[in-house]
Write a structure and sequence with these properties.
The complex is a heterodimer. Chain A is mostly helical. Helices cover about 75% and strands about 0% of the residues of chain A. The longest helix of chain A has 26 residues. Classes of the chains: A mainly alpha, B mainly alpha. The interface between A and B is large, with 88 and 67 residues.
C-alpha cells in the first residue's frame, strides 16, 4: 500500500471527540481509538439504524470503514453524509482525504498498465499540485511533456502554474505552444488573454479574450476579463457590452459590477455607474452576511480576516 | 450557486477547456462508429431503394468526403428516407465541421423520430456541450446512459457534462462506472484518479468557504507537509492546529511522531502526554508513550 493511502487511512482515526454524547456513538468512538475498528463500525451502523441520516454517525461509520481499508463503502457513506449536510466540516474533510487516497489507488493501477506514459506523469503532477508542492508538480509536468510534447493539457497546466506564480512571460510561452497545436483551445486563449492583461498589454489581451469568448460563449470569466481588457485599453463602451454579458451569465459576479461602475463613470454615465456600484455593494453585503453566518458555526476557532486583509475592491482577475 | 464555477471566476478555466478538448477528440472517434452502427441497427426503416445510396454516403463520410456525404444524405431525405439514423449521420457531418448549431437540429430530429435511439442523444449532448449548453446536454446524456448503460461513450460524455456543470460527485460516479466497464483501459484509470483529485480539491474549497478559520483547514496544510516529508514545516503547521483547537485528537500524536523522527525525544514525550490528555484511551498514543518511556534513560 502506498505511503499516501497509508497516511490517509491512518488519519481516519483522527476526529473530534466533542459532542459524541450518545452512548452508542461514544462507545463507537472509543472502539475506534482502541483499534477495534469492526466493533466501531458495528456500533455506528447500529446507531444509524435508529438515526438514519445522522451526519456525525455517518462520519464515524466512514472513519471506521476507512480504518479497515473499506474505501468504497466509506466513499458511499461520506457522500451520504454530505447529501444530508452539504457544509459539514468533518464530512468534507474526510471525503477530501479519502479522495486523495482513492486517486492514489487509481494512480497505482495506471502505473501498472502504462508505467512511463505521459498520463502517469500528468497525474503525479496534478497530485503534487493539489498538495501545493509546485516544484514536484513542475518536474512531473515536464516529464509528461517529454513523453508527449503535443499535450495541450500539459502545456496549459504549465501555463496556469506560471501565471499563478506571476511569471507571465513563461506562461505566455506555454500557452502559445498549446494554441499553436490547437487553435480552438479555450484554456490557452483565456490564459494568453489573462497573462497579457497582467503584462499591461491590453491590446493583445483583447485579441485572445475575444477568441476565448468565441470558443466558449457561455464563459462569464472570459467576458469579465475581456471587459477589463477593454477598460484598460480605454475602450469603455466596449467594456460595458462585455461586462453586461458577464453579469447576464453570472448575476452574482461582484467584480463585473465594480468594473461596470468604472466603465460607466468614464463614459460620464453617472446614474448607471452608481447603480452598478450599488449592486456591487449589495453583493458584498451578501458575502459579508454569509461570512457572519459562517462565524456562528461551531467549527470556527479563530476570527475571519479583517476587511483590510481581503483583496482590494475592484481588483480585476486573479492571475 | 455552484462552488466550482465560483472558483473558476477567479482562477480561470484550467479545467473547462480540458473537458472541451477531450470531448471534441472523443467525437472524432465516436461519430463514425455511430454512423456504421446506426445503419446496421435500423436499416429496415429505410426504403430498400435507398439502401445502396445510404451505404455510399457512409463510405464517403468515413473517407472524410464530407460534402459528398452531406449531399447523399440530403438526397435520401428528399426522396422519402426520413429516418432517424439519416438525420443522425447528417448531424455527425456538421459536428465534424464544428457547425454545432446545425448538428443540434439534425440530432433533435433523429431523437424525435426514434426516442430510444441513444446515439443521437450522445452526439447531441456533445454538441450542446461545445455550445456551452451544459444543462440540456446533461439531460440528454443522462437519458442516453439510461438507454445504454454499457455504452462507454455515453458515460464519457456524461462525465464531462457533470464536470463542466460542477457536479463533481456525478463526475466521479461516471468515471467509476467507466473503470468497471473497461478495467484494462489506462485512460479510464487516469480519468478516475483525476476526478477523485478534483473532488478532493472541491472538498477543501468548500471547507475554506464555509469554515474559513477552522482547524481542519490548518490540518490539511500540516498533512500536506507531513506527506511530503517536510517535517519542520509539518511540525509548525500542526502546532498551529493545536493552538487553534487544543481538543482535536491525533494532532499531538502526529507532532510526537515528527519529533521522534527528528530525534527530539523530550518534545515527543511532551506531545504524547498532551495527546493522552485529549484521548486517554488512544491505543496508538499509549503504545508510543510506552516506546518513548522505554527509550528514555532511567533516572
Amino acid at each position: 500500500m502506498s505511503r499516501l493511502i497509508a497516511f490517509a487511512l491512518a488519519l481516519s482515526v483522527a476526529g473530534p471527540l466533542r459532542g459524541q454524547d450518545n452512548p452508542v456513538l461514544s462507545e463507537s468512538v472509543k472502539a475506534l481509538y482502541q483499534n477495534q475498528f469492526a466493533r466501531s463500525e458495528a456500533l455506528a451502523a447500529r446507531f444509524l439504524k435508529a438515526h438514519p441520516g445522522h451526519v456525525r454517525g455517518l462520519v464515524l461509520l466512514a472513519r471506521a470503514e476507512m480504518a479497515q481499508g473499506k474505501v468504497e463503502p466509506a466513499y458511499r457513506t461520506l457522500t451520504k453524509a454530505l447529501r444530508a449536510d452539504p457544509k459539514n466540516a468533518d464530512a468534507l474533510y474526510y471525503l477530501g482525504r479519502l479522495c486523495l487516497a482513492l486517486s492514489e489507488g487509481q494512480y497505482e493501477g495506471l502505473y501498472a498498465m502504462a508505467p512511463d506514459s505521459a498520463r502517469v506523469h500528468q497525474l503525479l503532477a496534478e497530485s503534487a499540485r493539489s498538495r501545493h508542492d509546485l516544484r514536484k508538480a513542475e518536474e512531473e509536468y515536464q516529464a509528461a511533456l517529454r513523453a508527449n510534447p503535443a499535450s495541450v493539457e500539459v502545456l496549459n497546466s504549465l501555463g496556469d502554474m506560471k501565471r499563478h506564480q506571476f511569471k507571465f512571460e513563461e506562461a505566455v510561452s506555454y500557452y502559445s505552444k498549446a494554441a499553436a497545436i490547437q487553435p480552438r483551445d479555450y484554456d490557452s486563449a483565456y490564459g494568453l488573454g489573462a497573462a497579457y492583461l497582467y503584462l499591461q498589454n491590453p491590446g493583445r489581451a483583447v485579441e485572445y479574450l475575444r477568441r476565448a469568448v468565441q470558443i466558449d460563449p457561455a464563459s462569464a470569466p472570459a467576458y469579465l476579463a475581456l471587459g477589463d481588457a477593454y477598460l484598460r485599453a480605454g475602450r469603455a463602451e466596449e467594456a460595458v457590452t462585455e461586462l453586461r454579458t458577464a453579469v447576464r451569465l453570472q448575476p452574482d459576479m461582484r467584480q463585473a459590477y465594480v468594473l461596470l461602475g468604472r466603465a460607466y463613470s468614464r463614459l460620464g454615465k453617472k446614474e448607471e455607474a452608481n447603480k452598478a456600484l450599488a449592486l456591487a455593494q449589495e453583493l458584498q453585503q451578501k458575502e459579508k452576511a454569509k461570512l457572519v453566518e459562517t462565524l456562528a458555526s461551531d467549527d470556527l476557532v479563530t476570527p475571519p480576516p479583517t476587511p483590510a486583509q481581503r483583496p482590494e475592491e475592484g481588483e480585476p482577475i486573479h492571475p | 450557486m455552484n462552488p466550482w464555477l465560483k472558483e473558476q471566476r477567479f482562477d480561470g478555466p484550467s479545467d473547462a477547456g480540458l473537458k472541451r478538448r477531450a470531448s471534441e477528440l472523443l467525437l472524432m472517434v465516436t461519430f463514425l462508429a455511430f454512423a456504421g452502427k446506426a445503419w446496421g441497427q435500423s436499416a429496415a426503416n429505410l426504403p430498400a431503394s435507398l439502401h445502396g445510396r445510404f451505404t455510399e454516403g457512409v463510405e464517403a463520410q468515413k473517407a472524410g468526403r464530407l460534402e459528398e456525404a452531406e449531399g447523399i444524405f440530403r438526397e435520401i431525405l428528399a426522396q422519402g428516407g426520413k429516418v432517424s439514423f439519416v438525420y443522425n449521420n447528417l448531424g455527425v457531418i456538421y459536428q465534424m465541421r464544428r457547425e454545432h448549431e446545425r448538428a443540434v437540429q439534425q440530432f433533435r430530429e433523429a431523437i424525435r423520430l426514434q426516442t430510444d435511439y441513444a446515439a443521437p442523444r450522445i452526439l447531441l449532448g456533445a454538441s450542446l456541450l461545445a455550445l456551452g449548453n451544459v444543462s440540456e446536454a446533461t439531460q440528454h446524456l443522462e437519458k442516453a446512459v439510461r438507454l445504454q448503460p454499457q455504452e462507454p461513450r455515453a458515460r464519457e460524455q456524461l462525465a464531462r457534462a457533470y464536470e463542466r456543470g460542477g457536479n463533481l460527485r456525478g463526475h466521479v460516479d461516471q468515471c467509476r462506472a467507466l473503470r468497471k466497464l473497461k478495467p484494462e483501459e489506462p485512460e479510464y484509470a487516469y480519468q478516475l484518479a483525476h476526478a477523485y483529485l478534483k473532488l478532493a480539491a472541491w472538498c477543501n474549497r468548500e471547507l475554506a468557504t464555509h469554515h474559513p478559520s477552522s482547524a481542519r483547514i490548518l490540518q490539511f496544510q500540516a498533512e500536506n507537509y507531513h506527506a511530503q516529508g517536510r517535517l519542520d514545516l509539518a511540525a509548525r503547521a500542526y502546532q498551529r492546529v493545536a493552538q487553534a483547537d487544543p481538543a482535536l485528537p491525533e494532532i499531538h500524536y502526529l507532532l510526537a511522531l515528527i519529533y521522534l523522527e527528528q530525534g527530539k525525544t523530550a518534545e515527543a514525550q511532551r506531545e504524547v502526554e498532551r495527546e493522552l490528555a485529549v484521548v486517554p484511551f488512544s491505543i496508538a498514543a499509549l503504545e508510543l508513550k510506552k516506546k518513548l518511556d522505554a527509550s528514555s534513560p532511567s533516572p
